[in-house]
Amino acid sequence: MKRIVVVGSLNMDLVTTVRSLPKPGETVASTSFATIPGGKGANQAVCAARLGAQVKMIGKVGSDEYGSQLISILEESGVDSKGVYQNGKTGMAFIQVSEDGENSIVLYPGANGEITPQEIEYQKQIIENGDFILLQLEIPCEAVSHTLKLANSLGKKVILNPAPARILPDEWYPMIHTLTPNETELSILTKQEIQTKEDVIRSAKILMDKGAKQIIVTMGKKGAYFIRKNVHTHIPAYSVPTVDSTGAGDSFTAAFTFALAQGKEEVAAAQFASKVASMVVQRKGAIPSMPYGHEVEK
Ligand code: RIB
Question: Taking the model in full, what pTM does it have?
């Protein structure tokens, strides 16, 4: 089994359920409230570990109760958390989930926003010992950039989940093995409108021309596209009821990486990822909804 290193965010999610998401200026009453561990980095680390990978995480939580809870859940799920710093205030995500499972999220980065390139460098040995390096964009750009350069200089494969989306520096693309945007993120990265399958493929090619080796575009109920050079394969989504889509994209990226680490080829890995994500959308919350390997097999 190859080793996965996740460099990214950890949040405490403050989740309210509402009938429908409020429009600007509207006040709506929630039907429930819960604090649930999450954060794109932690979600991906826990998902890969529960599926059976050896996972180490580098990140930062606050020196507060939420921070300690997040470290405990990582450890309970089998993630080595020695690379997680504890200082300042834990990041929080204010999440509203509607009856049809859609969500809207406001992020308070807290400690995630304070991790520095130097702190990543201190954890060089963890990256050195990993095979796949998993990144998202909830930590500062300089920290992501440093990780990319370090991982590349060590010959590691980097999977970047560009969420939340922002324009990426051109110099990053040649250092990315797989990019996993959803349709909206692909549109932001390429400044292109995405309506049709042709738009998806054309936009993905823009990013491959910049140097990314392959792209998986996730599209919720419409499935996903795996795109590399002249190959573009549609991966259908499982038809399941959506209870809460929080963390589904994270589980897709993590499960894809896990399957690659197991030696699966890319399309089979994406099919496996689609299966895992279909389980996650049927459960509430981010980290609590990540399935164990035996549940996926069953
Ligand atoms: O991708 C879902 C995650 O986004 C949530 O867990 C929340 O913390 C935000 O980071």
Answer: 0.96
